[in-house]
Amino acid sequence: MQNNINIASNTPSALATNKVLRNTYALLGVSLFPTVIGALMGMSMSWGFAASSPILFMIMTLGGIFGMFFLIQKNKNSSLGVVFLLGLTFLLGLMLGPILQVAFSLSNGGQIVSLAAGGTGAIFLVLAGIAQTSKRDFSFMGKFLMIGLIMLILASLANMFFQVPAASLAISAIAVMIFSGFILYDVNRIVRGGETNYIMATLALYMNIYNLFVNLLHLLMALMGNRD
Description:
Blueprint (H helix, E strand, L loop, with lengths): L1 H42 L4 H5 L1 H21 L4 H16 L2 H8 L4 H25 L7 H22 L2 H27 L6 H27 L4
Helix pairs in contact: 1-4, 1-5, 1-9, 3-4, 4-9, 5-6, 6-8, 6-9, 7-8, 8-9
């Protein structure tokens, strides 16, 4: 009798969690469309301003991105939150323009971009599958991942001034590991009911995937890029 009561009491929670997960994956899939559109537009743009004034460009870009974060957070319980989220994914797609221009200037650029995209997708599917099926609680990873992220940001800012190629590669390699860890952590958090808003859940997973792709692409360009 007690077991029946427990099952009955857990069912609504499980249904709610599954709904959040389904909505998150659906919105995540939709968010890829404005990203691709933005990336295509970004590839056709001139980024001379970004090259001539990198610090000012970074400040303006971060201001726009964090402004969108604020608007998404403020409207997370309405359809307007979805609009702002898709706007952010378009903006971030646009920001892929410079790295994609460099990638496609390589003779094997198309292969490298495809490999980075495929690798990102494979990593996400594997880690999301583990997070959904494992009985283990991965919440303990949160503190370590956040510390790692802060150190990664500080290292990236420092390398903007020192411009050490080896350090840049090391930062990208560490970033791949950190954002892979965040995928595992964030999906597990949704499964365990730690995140009940699908818009915010989508935002977290999208940022993980985006940063994973960018850093994986950077690594592959450095290791496999052919300029002949």
